[in-house]
Structure to design on (130 residues):
């Protein structure tokens, strides 16, 4: 159910990008309780000029290592659960790939269940009313 977009400035290794994706996936499973095997990621590297961002917005000093995470998922989770997800994800990224905590930009996009089709032109999460 989550679709994860990971955007970063080009120059990282495939191993680094893979590890970042694994950390995001495992955090989604552990904290937000998404189903196992529900793993859909788009990881895109951009030239430095192709990923402009404010280096100091809200007093947070971002570097070229900044990673943007946009996660589209079913709506309905509490603010507290989302805050736990943000903190856990950033802590794990810092521990496991040495990403500065300031360099994790996370955006959750919540959508209703009828906005998903996983193939066959069907909305698998929609229950048909007879």
């Amino acid at each position: 159910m989550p679709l994860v977009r990971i955007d970063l400035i080009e120059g990282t290794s495939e191993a680094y990008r893979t590890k970042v994706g694994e950390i995001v996936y495992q955090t989604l499973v552990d904290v937000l309780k998404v189903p196992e095997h529900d793993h859909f990621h788009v990881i895109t590297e951009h030239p430095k000029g192709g990923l402009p961002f404010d280096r100091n917005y809200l007093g947070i000093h971002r570097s070229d290592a900044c990673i943007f995470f946009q996660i589209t998922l079913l709506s309905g989770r509490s603010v507290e659960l989302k805050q736990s997800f943000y903190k856990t994800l950033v802590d794990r990224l810092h521990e496991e790939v040495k990403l500065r905590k300031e360099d994790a930009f996370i955006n959750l996009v919540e959508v209703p269940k009828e906005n998903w089709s996983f193939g066959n032109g069907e909305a698998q999460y929609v229950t048909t009313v007879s």
Remarks:
- The CA atoms of residues 66 and 103 lie 4 Å apart.
- The helical segments are 14-32, 79-97.
